[in-house]
């Protein structure tokens, strides 16, 4: 298999553990093992203390899959297979796509969602996110125009990484309707689901709405547990689940026994975990909005609707790649420029889910105040 270098992951490999500050992480502040266990219910604690470190069921622990199914209305435990989130993307694409299939993909997007179809030999149309009136926007007409007789799959991601875009329910239903009309699969990356910024903004999982939809969710982002490496695919298609199980035999075979029990603990305390993360994001979002608006000569603030990231435009007089390089070298602050997502324009990602976000903004402000004489603009 020939596949391009994963630019985002290689970028994080360089800076994630060597810099003092990360302005651009996509996850929320990680829970400690002790926090998770201290708040666990008696049943999951019993499973934890009696755990044998043997092989686990390929589809996932039955209790874990039952807990997962509670998120959905039309999905039962038998409609779920657990996997590492990246693994879930890999095996699903290989289960459904073939050479010369056509795929429509939201753009920008997490790189594996486009690189794996490309490596299979699919042709790709990018459904590009556009900046409009201080927000991000998707044109439904462009989606309809992109569908061809060879189109096999539409790949979407809401809340969207990196922009934080979240369509209204009416627009989401139109997307589902287009896929149903043309009888194509939807692969819906929902890793930032449940982190909507406003009341009544939450979208239903695509797998609940459409019989040919595949919903990806997991514990890395919304649940602050990326180290568990627990995710899952939910779908109404029984045949697809059988194919995913067969492909998983060639990847991890089964999940980690300790990670599965810890995942059960997390899902049983989901209300507390979600509220803590949403409160942190709300607080950081307010600080980000104020900071980037105050420095309006440097930045264009683009309001996100959900998730734990925002995608901000830097004034075109300053090259974003060079600025990110300078900041990481001089202030040890890692910032991800938009070109890492293969997205044209002077954009960069901001992560809203970490405890030290305001401290990083303070450090960033000190940098700009120190460097302002070197910029070509005035009174920023």
Question: What are the main properties of this structure?
Answer:
alpha/beta; Aspartate Aminotransferase, domain 1; Aspartate Aminotransferase, domain 2; 2 domains; four-stranded antiparallel β-sheet
Description:
- With 380 residues, the protein is of the alpha/beta class.
- It folds into 2 domains: 7-29 and 271-374, Aspartate Aminotransferase, domain 1; 33-269, Type I PLP-dependent aspartate aminotransferase-like (Major domain) (Aspartate Aminotransferase, domain 2), CATH 3.40.640.10.
- The chain is built from 14 helices and 15 strands.
- A 7-stranded mixed sheet has the order 2-10-9-8-7-3-4, with helices on both faces. Strands 11-12-15-14 form a 4-stranded antiparallel sheet.
- α9 links the parallel β8 and β9.
- The longest helix has 25 residues, at 270-294.
- It starts with 6 loop residues before the first helix and ends in a 9-residue tail after the last helix.
- The model has no long low-confidence stretch (mean pLDDT 96).
């Amino acid at each position: 298999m020939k596949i391009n270098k994963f630019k985002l992951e290689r970028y994080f490999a360089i800076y994630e553990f060597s810099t003092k500050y990360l302005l651009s992480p996509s996850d929320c502040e990680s829970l400690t093992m002790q926090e998770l266990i201290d708040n666990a219910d008696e049943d999951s604690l019993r499973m934890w203390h009696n755990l044998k470190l043997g092989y686990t069921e390929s589809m996932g622990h039955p209790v874990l899959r039952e807990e997962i199914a509670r998120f959905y209305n039309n999905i039962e435990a038998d409609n779920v297979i657990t996997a590492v989130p990246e693994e879930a993307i890999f095996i699903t694409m290989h289960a459904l796509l073939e050479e010369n299939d056509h795929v429509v993909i939201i753009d920008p997007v997490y790189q594996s969602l486009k690189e794996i179809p490309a490596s299979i030999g699919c042709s790709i149309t990018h459904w590009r996110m556009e900046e409009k009136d201080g927000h991000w926007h998707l044109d439904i007409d462009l989606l309809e125009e992109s569908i061809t007789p060879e189109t096999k799959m539409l790949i979407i991601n809401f809340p969207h990484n990196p922009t934080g875009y979240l369509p209204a329910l009416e627009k989401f239903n139109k997307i589902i309707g287009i896929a149903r009309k043309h009888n194509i699969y939807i692969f819906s990356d929902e890793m930032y689901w449940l982190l909507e910024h406003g009341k009544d903004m939450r979208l239903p999982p695509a797998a609940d709405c459409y019989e040919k939809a595949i919903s990806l969710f997991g514990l890395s982002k919304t649940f602050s547990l990326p180290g568990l490496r627990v995710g899952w695919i939910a779908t109404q298609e029984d045949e697809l689940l059988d194919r995913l199980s067969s492909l998983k035999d060639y990847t991890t075979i089964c999940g980690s026994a300790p990670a599965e029990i810890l995942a059960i603990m997390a899902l049983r305390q989901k209300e507390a975990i979600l509220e803590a993360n949403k409160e942190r994001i709300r607080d950081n979002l307010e600080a980000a909005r104020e900071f980037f608006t105050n420095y309006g000569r440097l930045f264009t603030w683009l309001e996100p609707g959900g998730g734990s990231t925002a995608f901000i435009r830097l004034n075109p007089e300053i090259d974003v790649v060079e600025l990110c390089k300078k900041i990481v070298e001089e202030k040890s602050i890692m910032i991800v420029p938009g070109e890492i997502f293969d997205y044209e324009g002077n954009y960069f990602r901001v992560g809203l889910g970490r405890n030290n976000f305001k401290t990083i903004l303070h450090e960033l402000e000190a940098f700009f105040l120190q460097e302002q004489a070197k910029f070509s603009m005035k009174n920023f």
